Amino acid sequence: MWRNLPVVRVAAMIPMAVTAGLLATAMPAAGEPAQARTLLAGIMPKNTDEQYELSFWESIKNSNYAADYEAYLKQYPNGRFAGLARARLERLAGSAPAPKAQAPAPQPRAGATAGGQASRSPAPATASAPPAKAAPAAPAAARPSAPAPAPPATAPRAGTAGDGVVSTTLRTAEIRDCPACPALVTVPAGSFTMGSNASDPAEKPPHQVAIGQPFAIGRYEVTVEQWNACADAGGCQRIPTLADSAKNAPVRDVSWDDAQQYVAWLSKTTGKSYRLPTEAEWEYAARGGSASTYWWGDQMRKGNANCKDCGDPWSQDAPAPVGSFAANPYGLHDVNGSVWEWVADCWHSSYKGAPTDGRAWNENACGARVIRGGSWREGASYMVSSTRFKYSPSVRQSQNGFRVARDMK
């Protein structure tokens, strides 16, 4: 998507160069067939199935992770790269180790990127990598080099059942409704400007939103350990790709539908009404009272976000454990990068007609759901507080996770 800049920089996750609105042909990868080597030349149409499919394939074509090709085939069973995707799956299956009692750990991922797109046509929603976002206006050379703030503990403290406050961190009370439940923080009522005029068209128009009541939201993204507690209780499905993940890593490779299973289990377990945050609640909480590009200011600063341009700790293979980076003023960690986070709303291509009271913007036959925040695989330009994207609600993608919310009642 375009930003209001003289020259649009394309994120490194999509190996295409855009200058003055023209799309250059990507460099071919070794062994790619002619069909895979030829990208659309000239002016790239926005929001077209062809663009989404090409972007999706570019993001996974070097992956050693079978789930990436399975996700592509689910969305594009007759796509232009379907034959190649099936061949890659066969090759990965042929090189897999002998079966063990438990599912083997996945091979390191080499090329997938986060986010997902869905066609706005009446056809079923399709997934893809996010379109390239240009960098914020501040040049990289101007970014301050101040040392990163010391991160808090990576694991939430143990709590007690009920609605009591069990600890205080970063000026924000922490709530735990059961020992296995995510730690919550209370976000006060208030108003803010949602969206951005200096960003992608999907983030326009900026509009005033009033959050009328305080609400609780996860201090961290839901972790592997917390997800497995739901799976142990029969409330959620096992995620085989997480077999080798740390317990305090953010859960990922989960769909919007999977997240609904988790919040339903939490609600049944605690007697509280857990849910995904609305998109407005998510941005309000992520901004932490700020109106700047990031919650900490207008320039990237080391120690605040988990992305490939954001400083250590960083690995291309997996996100850092939750809480490895600084919390925002409301006490939330990892709202920038780490994993994309599902929210409650249906996708709309702009904020025209959006609610102004913070409720979810939903409709019947919702073909795509909103994800927010970027992931560890994207660059700094995806870390801005207004970044939003969409995905088919049934598709699992290894950069997608979530955090929970509930009303303060």
Question: Fraction of residues in helices?
Answer: 10-25%
Order of helices and strands: EEHHHHEEEEEEHHEHEEEEE
Largest sheet: 6 strands, antiparallel
Strand count: 14
The chain-level structural class is alpha+beta
Please tally the helical runs, counting DSSP H or I stretches of 4 or more residues: 7
Keywords:
disordered N terminus; 409 residues; 18% helix; globular; 14 strands; single chain; four-stranded mixed beta sheet; alpha+beta; six-stranded antiparallel beta sheet
Describe what you observe in this structure:
By secondary structure, the protein is α+β, with helices and mostly antiparallel strands. It has helices at about 35, 50-60, 65-75, 80-95, 225-230, 255-270, 280-285; strands at about 20, 20-25, 165-170, 170-175, 185, 190-195, 205-210, 215-220, 275, 340-345, 370, 390, 400, 405. α3 (about 65-75) runs antiparallel to α4 (about 80-95). It starts with 17 loop residues before the first strand and ends with a strand. The model is unreliable at about 1-45, about 100-130 and about 135-170 (pLDDT under 50).
Secondary-structure topology with pairs:
Blueprint: E1 18-19, E2 22-23, H1 34-37, H2 49-60, H3 66-75, H4 82-94, E3 165-169, E4 172-175, E5 184-187, E6 190-194, E7 207-211, E8 215-218, H5 224-232, H6 256-270, E9 274-275, H7 279-287, E10 340-346, E11 369-372, E12 388-391, E13 400-401, E14 405-407
